[in-house]
Specification:
The complex is a heterotrimer of chains A (270), B (361) and C (297). By secondary structure, chain A is mainly alpha-helical. Chain A has one domain: MetI-like (MetI-like fold), CATH 1.10.3720.10. With 361 residues, chain B is α+β, with helices and mostly antiparallel strands. Chain B contains 8 helices and 20 strands. Chain B has a 6-stranded mixed beta sheet with strand order 6-7-8-3-9-10, sandwiched between helices. In chain C, 77% of the residues lie in helices and 2% in strands. Chain C has a two-stranded antiparallel ribbon with strand order 1-2. Chain C starts with a helix and ends with a helix. The chains are: A mainly alpha (270), B alpha+beta (361), C mainly alpha (297).
């Protein structure tokens, strides 16, 4: 069949892109608007909202909390996911499908369930709420994501390369350091970056478990209720959108780095 | 020259309940080009990996140059390997790939450059030092893999179907080049292949394997003309099988009755006993003479009908049906003028010494 | 001897794999399985004020399911609304995304991956902000209404845009687009073009080819998309809270209230268990229907 042109379909795709991007674009757009109402026509250009954002000290604390949680959760998740991905790509073992499903479940049950059950056990044990339970929750739902990314990357990994290194005189550690790690590094970094973005944006678990240690989304949630505070949340949102977009593009670029040409099209499962 | 440079003693390797290698014993001489030949799944690659150290035998012992390496790790063996897909490190360029194994040799920069230059010269790959794996053709990758292994100056070079990924013309060229390279460096080569033509044209000796066992170890010529069993006879080249019964022995010779053709006195190279009864005669297609006239100077003469002709350029293959013989005989001949056979009638003749007598095991 | 060796070999591979898997499995057990079980246990308790009575009772489930009481009516209504909205969101997300995935899979020749990346980038930018953006657009003083009023097309804001099930569905269709796009694209991109050509060759029109060949072959992607969208929608709480109003409120908002403001962990746990149970039931049904469908193909 001739798949060269289809004007109607193409028009729809353009429409879809608009639907996808325009709502997100309103945040940066109105963050520069010199006026309290989010409406056209735009009143004038201002950077006041950004200044206001800059001076909000609670925001800074929340930002650092989010970065701390994101790095810790994503590093642990990438590490655990790497070990698990290694097991799934290297060995055939009893209970393979079951354990694969088990590790994916945190991603397959509603987040609110994860959040409230962590809350229930945390309170019943009598531990204080705060960043620690958030990190556990985030690690939990980042592991499936990171594992899927790493498995797709490691399935293309040629086992012969490790054997070749052994054959040329490297021990187990030398092989890991000189061959396995450099080849998988882009994938590992991509996994870390995407895990970080996931955790950085995560709201539900953080809201239930934060106690008085707010993360950025929890802080924003608090601000959204006050119309007066809205513009500076918009400014913050614009910064977050630009930041995460850059991180995600870097992660995508890293994921495809060094992949053989014919494999590139296959490695897009998130 | 060491006769038993590599020794494999009663080696078996099981994967679960699959016997990949089944109680195999043989030795390889120093400086020899030795091939392991067999259909896929016959255990030849496992045997090679046992030599490389990627697998360890379930039973038995392996010796290289007098020392036992049965359970020595691959990085500590005097062997290097050329992988089937070449396994060129994608994150390193050609130079770094070749230098990879030299880290522990503690060479100066100049010495290293000399060694790299030497092997690049050997595999004719100068000028490609800065390229990466994805910028190389299949043949070039193979050269990198060879150089990377040879720079280590191994006692044994192991090659796992290295020509499998190349196209026909390049394969033929590389066969000659690989053979010359081996003579030049004088290293023992152990070469795994499923291509019988390849192993016959390149090797000093060939081990034919099937179902984890060695079926025959011979020089290529012997493999073709003196197969020791039906498997080898069938696997190497094309052959005709005729069933026969043993009658009686006469010194080195033996009387047999071949299908419905008659009784003949044949060479008995395998010393088959006269009470074996059912045996098989193997005759190569090119040992059969084909003519449109009755043949005089052959001991076994028959009349038949040509049922099929395939023209292959230098040779033509005829399928000849003979009354009393179950399968049509395959005859290859340089003649192509099949139209000269009157209504496909033909005469064939065979020298008795060209008939190989095999047991039906 | 052989048997012993065989056992050792088999177990050593198993052992190596499980050593590598153990950290992740321990996390899943301690971080998910145990807490979910604790919540399950909690759903059989009674909470009055800050006191929790741990003697086991089914009362919380009765409270939830008894439509004679106000609480029961609200909770069952919200449960059925959560499920209805989730089905609507799943259906419309797949319906709107399918043509795009189809276009990229079949019509885009170069840089497919770039297209996919471009279409998934909004997905990575803060979920909270994406939902909030729709509030800016649909709200009474939002972009659409404010612009309409200032141009003079209408005097009053179009109230049905906001705080309704419609606004929830629109917002979530936007939020989950990437969840539909990726599985759909992967399954469509895998389809061998010669199968489509064969169908045309055998006399099918373009449309028939789509119905009889392309769509059935893309079903695995559709199923994947259904599950991956349905599950988070049932548990979603941000969207109904921001753009749903009372009309678009869902079960998760009540669960949040029970664990927060209302402070009734027991009933909250029971509600969460019922939600989890419904998700599992739907997953099983979808899987079952899929098996039936794919067997017939």
């Amino acid at each position: 069949m001739n798949f060269t042109k289809n004007k109607m379909l193409y028009g729809y795709v353009i429409l879809y892109f608009t639907f996808l991007y325009v709502p997100v674009m309103f945040l940066p757009l109105f963050s520069f608007n010199d006026g309290m109402h989010m409406a056209f026509p735009i009143k004038g250009f201002t950077l006041d909202h950004y200044e206001e954002m800059w001076s909000a000290s609670k925001l800074h604390a929340a930002l650092w909390n989010s970065i701390y949680v994101g790095i810790t959760a994503s590093l642990s998740a990438t590490f655990l996911a790497f070990l698990a991905a290694k097991a799934f790509t290297k060995y055939k073992f009893r209970g393979q499908i079951f354990t694969y499903g088990a590790i994916l479940t945190p991603f397959l049950i509603p987040e609110i369930i994860l959040a409230v059950s962590l809350l229930v056990i945390w309170i019943n044990i009598g531990l204080p709420l705060g960043l620690t339970p958030i990190i556990i929750g985030h690690t939990l739902f980042c592991v499936p994501f990171c594992m899927i990314i790493l498995i797709s990357r490691m399935e293309g990994f040629d086992k012969n390369l490790e054997e070749a290194a052994r054959d040329l005189g490297e021990g187990v550690l030398g092989t890991f350091y000189r061959v396995t790690l450099p080849i998988l590094l882009p994938g590992l970094i991509a996994s870390f970056l995407l895990g970080f973005v996931l955790s950085f944006d995560e709201f539900l678990i953080a809201m239930f478990l934060a106690g008085s240690d707010q993360t950025l989304p929890v802080y924003m949630w608090g601000q959204l209720r006050f119309a007066r505070r809205l513009p500076h949340v918009l400014a913050l949102g614009a910064v977050i959108i630009v930041g995460t977009t850059l991180i995600v593009m870097l992660a995508y670029w890293l994921r495809n780095l060094g992949q053989p040409q014919e494999k590139k099209n296959l490695t897009i499962d998130i | 020259m060491n006769k038993n440079f590599i020794e494999i003693k009663n080696v078996s390797k099981y994967f679960g309940n699959v016997k990949a290698v089944d109680d195999v014993s043989f030795s390889i001489n120093q400086g020899e080009f030795f091939s392991l030949l067999g259909p896929s799944g016959c255990g030849k690659t496992t045997l090679l990996r046992l030599l490389a150290g990627f697998e360890h035998p379930s039973k038995g012992q392996v010796f290289i140059d007098g020392s036992e390496v049965t359970s020595v790790a691959p990085n500590l063996r005097p062997t290097n390997m050329v992988f089937q897909n070449y396994a060129i490190f994608p994150h390193l360029n050609v130079r770094k790939n070749i230098e990879f194994g030299m880290r522990k040799e503690n060479l100066t920069k100049e010495e290293m450059e000399d060694r790299v230059g030497e092997v690049l010269n050997l595999v004719k790959l100068q000028g490609y030092e800065e390229r990466y794996s994805n910028q190389l053709s299949g043949g070039q990758r193979q050269r990198v893999a060879l150089a990377r292994a040879l720079i280590k100056r191994p006692k044994v070079l192991l090659l796992d179907e290295p020509l499998g990924a190349l196209d026909k013309k390049l394969r033929d060229e590389m066969q000659i080049e690989l053979r010359n390279l081996q003579k030049q460096v004088g290293i023992t080569f152990v070469f795994v292949t499923h291509d019988q033509g390849e192993s016959i044209s390149m090797s000093d000796r060939v081990a034919v394997m099937n179902e984890g066992k060695i079926k025959q170890i011979s020089e290529p010529h012997d493999l073709y003309y003196n197969p020791q069993n039906i498997f080898v006879s069938d696997f190497i080249g094309t052959t005709n099988f005729l069933s026969a019964q043993t009658l009686s022995k006469d010194g080195d010779l033996i009387y047999v009755s071949i299908e419905n053709i008659g009784q003949f006195k044949l060479n008995n190279k395998l010393s088959i006993g006269e009470n074996t009864n059912d045996v098989t005669c193997s005759i190569r297609p090119e040992s059969i003479e084909l003519s449109s006239e009755p043949i005089q100077n052959k001991e076994l003469k028959m009349h038949g009908k040509i049922v099929n002709t395939s023209y292959y350029g230098e040779l033509t293959t005829f399928h000849v049906v003979i009354e009393g013989i179950k399968n049509p005989l395959i005859v290859s001949s340089q003649r192509y003028d099949h139209k000269s056979f009157l209504s496909n009638n033909c005469y064939i003749g065979i020298n008795l010494e060209d008939i190989n007598l095999l047991t039906n095991e | 001897m052989f048997q012993v060796w065989q056992k050792f070999y088999a177990s050593s591979d198993n052992a190596k794999a499980y050593i590598l898997l153990s950290p992740a499995l321990i996390l899943v057990i301690l971080g998910m399985a145990v807490p979910v079980f604790a919540m399950f246990a909690m759903s059989f308790t009674t909470q009055a004020g800050f006191e929790i009575d741990y003697s086991p009772t089914f009362d919380r489930y009765r409270e939830f399911l008894d439509t004679g009481t106000r609480t029961g009516t609200i909770l069952t209504t919200l449960l059925s609304r959560s499920i209805t909205i989730s089905f609507l969101v799943t259906f419309f997300t797949i319906l709107t995304t399918y043509p795009v995935a189809y276009y990229v899979a079949f019509y885009v020749k170069k840089n497919k991956i770039l297209w996919i990346i471009l279409m998934t980038i909004p997905f990575w930018t803060s979920y909270l902000l994406r939902v909030f953006a729709w509030k800016l657009i649909l709200g009474n003083s939002g972009v659409i209404n404010a612009s309409l009023i200032s141009v003079g097309l209408t005097d009053e804001p179009l109230s049905y845009l906001m705080y309704s099930q419609l606004s929830v569905v629109i917002t979530l269709c936007h939020a989950w687009s990437a969840f539909a796009l990726l599985p759909l694209f992967v399954s469509l991109d895998k389809i061998d073009h010669s199968l489509i050509e064969a169908s045309r060759d055998l006399g099918c029109s373009k449309f028939e080819t789509f119905i009889r060949v392309t769509f059935p072959l893309s079903l695995p992607g559709v199923i994947g998309a259904i599950l991956i969208i349905f599950i988070p929608t049932v548990g979603d709480f941000v969207t109904p809270a921001l753009v749903g109003g009372t009309e678009g409120r869902m079960l998760s908002n009540m669960i949040q209230a029970y664990f927060g403001r209302v402070n009734n962990f027991s009933l909250g746990a029971a509600s969460a268990v019922i939600m989890l149970f419904s998700v599992i039931v739907v997953t099983i049904i979808v899987n079952f229907v899929t098996k039936r469908l794919t067997q017939r193909l």
